[in-house]
Amino acid sequence: MTTGKGPIVTAYGNRKGGVGKTSTVLGVAAMLAAAGKKILVVDLDAQSDATRTLGVSDVADDQLDIFDVLYAGESGTLDQAIVPTTWQNVWAVPGSKQLSRIESESMMTPEFRLSTAADGVDLDMYDHVLVDLPPNIGRLTLNGLIFAHQVYVLTEAGVSSSFGVQEFMETIEVVQKSRHLNAHLAIGGIILNAVGNPPTDDDRYWMSQLRSIHGPLVVDPVLHRRTAVKDAAARGVPIHEIRTAGGEAMAKAYDRLAKHITTKGDRS
Question: What is the b/e burial string over 225-260, where b = at least 16 CB atoms within 10 angstroms of the residue's CB?
Fold first, then answer.
């Protein structure tokens, strides 16, 4: 990246899938965009759910996607892959089913492909870049972590998700401790998703476990399980366009997260 202060680059991930990272990326994007901020979503997940929800379903034959960006590994290619979405104030670098090739094929310095592709690209028109990481710990995740200024770990209140948090935190620590990777990467926090409303006894147990281990890294608010989130994804609209009690509650929660992310990522 390049001139000026530039956008805040925030990655979202967990080793485990199905923890709500894509819905959180889109929820935060929706509320930041509604506040007049310009957002770029980079979809590093081969499932490309963020891409589809943003209305980028048909990419022209000559249009690059995130696979082309990473596979080329050339400075400036990120700029060529950015497309408008159906959401106001939101742009995207589309995901690709071919991303699995990045994990499996041998290539030079594979973990730096995203950062290299952003070299020479002026991203100053964006206030935030949100990176949707894949549900694993591999080359794609490393690309996102090296590119980002901060990272948020998504989890549900359960045993497998909680173990996924620990493994993901260990990966972040490896990246931070290596001056060749991203020693400046900050941990924004751990976001608890899909908590019952009200929380079940099991929810409360795992929430207390996470807080006892990770303390103030666990972000407030927690995100409750609401059908409005699935409704928004199915309709391909921002969460605040779901005019139900659940939609309004989730919009408020994502708005609080957006403020947290902005404050933690402020580099002024």
Answer: bbebbebbbeebbbbbbbeeebbebbbebbbebbeb
pTM exceeds 0.85 for this model: yes
Question: What are the chain's domains?
Answer: 8-265 (3.40.50.300)
CA distance 172 to 176: 6
User: What is residue 59's predicted lDDT score, i.e. its pLDDT?
Assistant: 64
CA distance 66 to 69: 5
- The structure tokens listed for 206 are 């795992």
Task: Kindly report, residue by residue over 50-83, the tens digit of the pLDDT.
Answer: 999 999 976 666 789 999 999 998 999 999 999 9
Q: Please, which residues have CB within 8 angstroms of residue 234's CB and are 6 or more apart in sequence?
A: none
Q: Assess contact for 118 and 78: CB atoms under 8 A.
A: yes
